[in-house]
Design brief:
By secondary structure, the protein is of the alpha+beta class. Helix content is 15%, strand content 48%. The protein has a 14-stranded mixed beta sheet with strand order 1-2-3-4-5-6-7-8-9-10-11-14-15-16. The protein has a two-stranded antiparallel sheet with strand order 12-13. A hairpin with a 5-residue loop joins β10 and β11. The radius of gyration is 26 Å and the shape is elongated. About 3% of the residues have low confidence.
């Protein structure tokens, strides 16, 4: 009888420890402290002695409820180190993420105010993963959107990628990453590739993207101020590399390396410097200059536009008159 009772008690404990309710109670506080916002978990279960699988995990940015979850993970499997579980100090050796969405939302009323800024992680020195933790990602989407002037969410653009994240040494908030665009049927050599690092505590991002085909989809992923500037330049062509350095409460610094592209120089208060030569005279020119760039670099630094080592030809953006172009190098 005693043995039977012990077996029933053991079975009850096993069922309790494997129940979604218990795992939600166990996981939510640490996840909310780490992410800095409310977390919901639809289902969680042990799928092996050291493997925990969570399905439909969602993170909400406080004050941005109208935009929906800032993060949704379809399925994540965590492989714990066995000895760490026995010591009641769980350490994840591998985290596998399959499917999900990171939704980055900007306010149209207050440009450069993002939903991710509302996340405030509360972490102790022991909370962060060690350098042995590896995070793999499959078919994950980054969705760029905004809260319009009517306070409704609007999706601007989406990219899908797979890759790997590694926590950097001696910190639990700073991560390095390598990501590659996921697009069925595409040549791997033509897909966009991103690498860099980000810090969830200080809201900092260092990002380098290669193999970008400039398009409306690319523009839609940029902050509103950058969209406005780049749209005024009417950029066309391909970009070899884009490097972005951004931190909270500051404009992003962007470096764009060009192989072959056309762009219009925006009006930055320099229109009086442009003129055209016609019939032996210098005449005022009201249309903005149009550049065809063979190679070079465009810098957006603290709101300033800098052109460096650009080579190509210079003409006009006018669609009503024809102009001969002039070779240049800046």
């Amino acid at each position: 009888l005693i043995l039977g009772g012990a077996i029933l008690m053991l079975c009850g404990l096993v069922l309790l420890f494997n129940s979604t309710w218990f795992l939600q109670w166990l996981l939510r506080p640490s996840l909310e402290a780490r992410f800095g916002g409310p977390v919901t978990i639809h289902d969680a279960s042990w799928t092996g002695f050291c493997d925990l699988t969570v399905q439909d995990l969602q993170l909400q940015a406080p004050g941005w409820e109208q935009a929906g979850p800032v993060l949704r993970i379809d399925e994540v499997t965590v492989q714990f180190q066995a000895s760490s579980l026995l010591k009641l100090r769980p350490h994840a050796e591998v985290i596998q993420i399959k499917g999900g969405v990171l939704r980055i939302v900007e306010s149209a009323r207050d440009p450069m105010n993002f939903n991710i800024d509302a996340l405030v992680p509360v972490m102790s020195e022991d909370d962060g993963p060690t350098a042995a933790t590896i995070v793999t990602i499959e078919n994950f989407m980054v969705e760029r959107g905004g809260i319009n002037l009517e306070d409704h969410y609007e999706e601007n653009g989406v990219i899908t990628f797979s890759g790997e994240l590694l926590p950097m040494e001696r910190t639990g908030s700073r991560w390095s990453f390598e990501l590659i665009e996921s697009m069925a049927g595409s040549d791997p050599n033509e897909l966009s590739f991103a690498k860099g690092s980000f810090d969830t505590s200080f809201h900092e991002l260092d990002l380098t993207i290669q193999n970008i085909k400039f398009s409306r989809a690319f523009l839609d992923m940029l902050p509103y101020r950058m969209q406005k500037l780049f749209k005024s330049m009417d950029l066309r062509g391909a970009i070899q590399k884009v490097a972005v350095n951004w931190s909270k409460d500051s404009l992003p610094n962007i470096e764009v390396q060009i192989d072959s592209m056309e762009l219009t120089i925006p009006d930055l208060g320099t229109s009086e410097y442009w003129a055209r030569y016609q019939d032996g005279r210098m005449l005022p020119e009201h249309a903005a200059p149009r550049m065809s760039v063979d190679k070079g670099t465009i810098l957006v630094d603290d709101g300033r536009l800098v052109l460096r080592n650009l080579g190509g030809s210079l003409g006009s953006s006018s669609r009503t008159e024809r102009f001969n172009t002039v070779p240049f190098r800046l």
